[in-house]
Amino acid sequence: EVECLIKLFDTLVAESSSRFAAAGFDRNMFRDTLHSAFGMTDDMIMDRVFRTFDRDNDSCINVVEWVEGLSVFLRGTLEERIKYCFEVYDLNGDGYISREEMFQMLKNSLLKQPSEEDPDEGIKDLVDIALKKMDYDHDGKLSFMDFEKAVRDENLLLEAFGPCLPDIK
């Protein structure tokens, strides 16, 4: 499987016209790959997945980051996927998913209903529901421990704030 991932990486990089092509994927190429291979469409989620894969923060995903990232993405244990999803949702990297971060994620991943007067009201209600269900220490934000406990109690909460894992297909 690792050999196949490396071959795929080399093939995709060879097709790229990016200035990063010698080193790996840039953000746009990675997003195109997420979209075509996994059907991801949410720009914010794809950007966060890129940042989670890009371990050294050089704005380029090299072959090691590609293989390690896809390992968790496609075959990760529950623990690895919990950590990965938490990193995707923790927008500012402070170790917590705040009310504002939840709002931003949900705002982008939910369909807008044209009949709603204030679509943000429904999103605020969802954030309140998520906090009630997941914020075990009642500090108004989700720590990694809160998130992990909530997901272990209910696995569907793994992608509570947007689809950042591939579906079963």
TrEMBL record:
Keywords from the named record: Calcium, Metal-binding, Repeat
Record bears the keyword Metal-binding: yes
SMART domains given in the database record: EFh
Molecular-function GO term, any one: calcium ion binding
Keyword check for Repeat: yes
InterPro entries linked: EF-hand-dom_pair, EF_Hand_1_Ca_BS, EF_hand_dom, Recoverin
Highest taxon in the source lineage: Eukaryota
Coiled coil start-end: none
Pfam families: EF-hand_7 (PF13499)
All copies of domain EF-hand, residue ranges: 41-76, 77-112, 122-157
PROSITE patterns per the UniProt record, alphabetical: EF_HAND_1, EF_HAND_2
Protein name: EFCB1 protein
Organism of derivation: Spizaetus tyrannus (black hawk-eagle)
Lineage, top ranks: Eukaryota, Metazoa, Chordata, Craniata, Vertebrata
